[in-house]
Amino acid sequence: MEIEDLKYFISVAQLLNFSEAGRQNNVQQPKISRSIHELETQLGAKLFVRTNRDVSLTREGETFLPYAIDIVQTAEKAADMVEQVHSGRTGYLSIATVSTTARILASCLSVFSKQYPDILIDITQNSGGAQATAMLENRYDFHFAHLSMLPKDGRLDHVLIHRDKLVLVVPKGHRLTRGEFDFSSIFHENFIMISQPQSPQLYDQIMRLFVSYHKMPKIIHRYDKAESVLLSVSSGLGVTILPLGLTKAFFAGDVDIIPLESEGLEIDYVCAWPRQARNPSSKLFLEVVRNFFPQGLD
After folding, report:
1. What topology is assigned to 3-86 in CATH?
2. Which pLDDT score is estimated for 131?
3. What is the distance in angstroms between the CA of the first residue and the CA of the last residue of the chain?
4. Is the torsion defined by CA of 13, 14, 16, 19 positive or negative?
5. What is the DSSP letter of 56?
């Protein structure tokens, strides 16, 4: 499957006109048609329906389009990165983060980018599950993540960068904000949960809290993203438990926060990197990180 063929497919899908797609790509219309035919042969499915007047995507074509765009963009990005490094004009740094550590990463990058403006930085925001997998596979130069995500084999060095705490999040002006708070009152509320596959560490910590009370809440929704959880809470659909840092990042003015006093509610976050890092840019970024957190957390 050639990148050129994918580009032609994307053009036709966006313009719904083979001739116009040819003009856009500076090729003759028959070349566009041959490329689409080759793609359809490889995929074993028709991508377009063509009549004398109209061109439209088939269901298979609609399904294939976003993947084709992603493949082309990734290939172009990779080629650009290689060209930049090969030309000697810049270095390259790949960093993965979870939502809770994004603000800390932004502070580090603010300093780093001023010192090294020509180093290209590729940032990926992962779910908890994806971040844990990325750390196991050493996919990035740096990982900003939950301490419990660190591989146990010591392949990554790390420094503690942030300590957060779980809090109860309720709709603005909720009755639980009035008077003295009793944790058992949570079990009378509709509860909105972060999903286990996407955030296994956070999910397990919340579940351990409930187990310590020998009771489970009435869970009415599970969402992959903390933003969705907080949107539901802000809409009055229920209550949730999340790290305090997340509540400041999303819908901060639309929810109320109730501190929790139970044991085991602290969450430590780290910046981690491969012990055998060979990227020259990594060494420069590590200097910035160590200056930010010279002793880690007390």
Report:
1. Arc Repressor Mutant, subunit A (1.10.10)
2. 87
3. 53
4. negative
5. E
Which of the pair, 168 or 118, is modelled with greater confidence? 168
Say if CB 96 and CB 128 are below 8 A apart: no
**Hey, what's the torsion of the CAs at 288, 294, 296, 298, to 10 degrees?**
-150
Nearest to 10 by CA among 27, 35, 46: 35
Amino acid found at 296: G
How far apart CA 133 and CA 62 sit, in angstroms, is 30
Given the candidates 3.90.1150.10, 3.40.190.10, 3.40.50.720, 1.10.155.10, the CATH classification of the domain at 163-267 is: 3.40.190.10
Residue 130 to residues 98, 125, 198, 215, Cα–Cα distance (Å): 9, 9, 7, 30
Q: Is 191 helix (H, G, I), strand (E, B) or coil?
A: strand
Mean pLDDT of the chain, nearest integer: 87
How far CA 175 is from CA of 182, 186, 189, 238, in Å, comes to: 12, 11, 11, 12
- CA neighbor of 158 nearest in space, from 292, 298, 290, 291: 290
- Quote the crossing angle between the two packed helices 102-115 and 280-292, to the nearest 10°: 120
Q: Which amino acid does the sequence have at 217? A: P
pLDDT at 298 over 50: no
- What is the rounded distance in angstroms from the CA atom of residue 168 to the CA atom of residue 50? 56
